[in-house]
Amino acid sequence: MTANDDALLDAKARLLTGADMWSLPAVPELGFRGLTMSDGPIGVRGVRWTGDPSIALPSPTALAATWDVSLVRTLGALLGQEAQRKDVQVLLAPTVNIQRSPLGGRHFECFSEDPLLTGLIAAAYVQGVQECGVAVTVKHFVANDFETERMTASVTVSERALREVYLRPFEIVVREARPWGIMAAYNGVNGVRMSENAALLNGVLREEWGFDGFVVSDWFGARDTVAAALGGLDVAMPGMASPYGPPLAAAVREGEVPRKVLEEKAARVLRLAGRTSGPTAPGHFDGPVLARVAAARATTLLRNDGVLPLEGSPRIALIGGPAKDARVMGGGSAQVTPFHVVSALDGLTAAGLDVRYARGADPSERLLPAAVTVRVTALAADGAVLAEFDQPDGVIQWLGQLPEGIDPAALDSVVLRGTLTPGESGGHLLGVEGAGTFRLTADGEVLFDGTVAPASGDPFAALFVAPQTVLPKVLEAGRPVEVEVVHRVARAAGPVPFLGFALLHREPRPDPDALLDEAVEAAASAEVAVVVVGTSKEVESEGFDRTSLRLPGRQDELVARVAAANPRTIVVVNAGSPVEMPWRDDVAALLLTWFPGQEGGHALADVLTGALEPGGRLPTTWPAVLEDCPVVDVTPKDGVIEYAEGVFVGYPAWQRAGTAPAFEFGSGLGYTTWSYESAEHAGGTLTVTVRNTGTRSGREVVQVYLSPADPDPESPARRLVGFAIAEAGPGESTTVAIGVPARAYATWRDGAWNPNPGRHLLHTGHSLTDTPLTTLVHHP
């Protein structure tokens, strides 16, 4: 090996790991300018965890609820535009894992329980992003469908289930959208860690499907240099404590990794650089307008006795903590800092509706960050100012990359100072969120000076659901109060700079019983009651799984009492994944808004007034109670989680169990009605004619399910094989063509896709079992 060859070996190894938390280094010897990665999937956060605003779209489950691949492709292009604005070349999204259990902590970040719907929505997302010259990393490959022990557990799954359920959405995206990146999951599959799984990364992904992009680890998911290199992993992120870079170069020199393997990995990263230096966004997209349309189209109407859309200008009692303190996204790496957030109260007020607000109940007793502009000062041990800047709230979340000018080794303390002007006199609550040493003062009075222990050893819990220290303080309305938090920074035990804490505040509030009574009184005196309920960040977030599907706090009691007081009660569920709704048959209307993104309040007003039709259909089954769910297990035992249900995941499992859910897969109402007139199959295409039998224009999601004419107990009773959006005016008919590919008739057995010849039935209609049309197909 010549000196030049030796230098190039080092350069290529350096190309394959991070320069820091979010970027690959510039390698001039290879003509590589470096590139930056950013978390998604609802926005583009950038390299800073907070303080760099981004568009905030509805959650991925909400996007899947639209069943609208054209809209999702446009939203993908909007995200590509946002990435370009932030000089980001790789968006770490979308998540195409399957919603196997409703207890999955990142359920909201996935699209659906169905592999076809997941794959087609994800493919549209990828196409939109990459049209802008921005790469994606479709994740988490594969079977990362739980959070508990996700970094170490191995999934035991049959080859058939792996192929038909868990690999299928990835295959659809690879074949339909040609993604430029894939992210390997933390977990193992059948005993082999995914960052080292040559059979799946090299064999299935590259050789069988023809994937020609790069494979990146999940952050800190690569642990063994040789095993990862031979297993098919191209890039190990981040740069701290990486097994690539110099360790990979050493492994090549020692003959443990063939030089050809290194060359191929470097070539894939250089190909990525070429792809992301291409075209700019195809036109300009209005983010708030698109986010508003998407939120309305995702809104899923599950019950309506005729109260919606609202007529005239009724007196509305708007009730619920989430109606004012909107939760527009799930927790974890999916978080971004929105430019603004439109709550339900904001949206209904802006629409000119006659609204009286009552809190009623909250999904969480935790305090929210103080809504004040704070001055942030970072200090060295000698008092020297390392950095100083203003930010619009009292939240500090620095992970991996600290603000400019702050050297992690020199940082000793961070000070937040702000002026709080109370809106009410009385007993306020002030506090600090975070673990470590803090000093909290108000007008110079020390309220807290001490050390707070972490609530758990989980790093994600420490970042997203940190302990809160809360103190009472009597304040006078209109009299400004100077508040200050001083946080002494502990020396980082790990390789990643991390700092997270917040200044908290809550205005005086009646006791919980009084809040409920106030809400009931408001409902009784109104013509319509709109109750917004939801989950909290302690319930739905990356890093942990759920333990219950019940709404937290006293929200069920709130709905029951309001519905008893006002028969025209509309409930809005602000949650990213299924919740139990014991009152669902006692309310006039039921809307799911999911995590609706920054424009959620405007979209809700549009739907309530009928300015826009609720376009959503369920992408996942909603149970009556958790105990009815056929698949719930998300907890590994001795480091292994068994997917013993095989291919019976989602609605196939419900159909096999014979238990009726609260709302089946594909369910959803609009503001008009439809009749299904005909369905004819020829040449692999089903042509369906539907008629709008209502009095206003509308959209219908035409769904097609396949079943064998002779039931097979080893296979799902029905499986989604296609769908399309139909639009028509009142009284009009329209025809849609839905392709039914040959793969729909095949089963994975004996190491290959095998066709199932004979008679099959295509069921066409509104949802899984509401299928008025049946078409007999003879498959060769």
Automatic annotation (TrEMBL):
Family statement drawn from the similarity comment of this UniProt entry: Belongs to the glycosyl hydrolase 3 family.
GO molecular function: hydrolase activity, hydrolyzing O-glycosyl compounds
PANTHER family: BETA-GLUCOSIDASE (PTHR42715:SF10)
Organism superkingdom: Bacteria
PA14 domain: residues covered: 348-520
Keyword Hydrolase among UniProt keywords: yes
Pfam families: Fn3-like, Glyco_hydro_3, Glyco_hydro_3_C
Coiled coil: none
Keywords: Carbohydrate metabolism, Glycosidase, Hydrolase
Gene Ontology terms: biological process: carbohydrate metabolic process
Name of protein: Beta-glucosidase
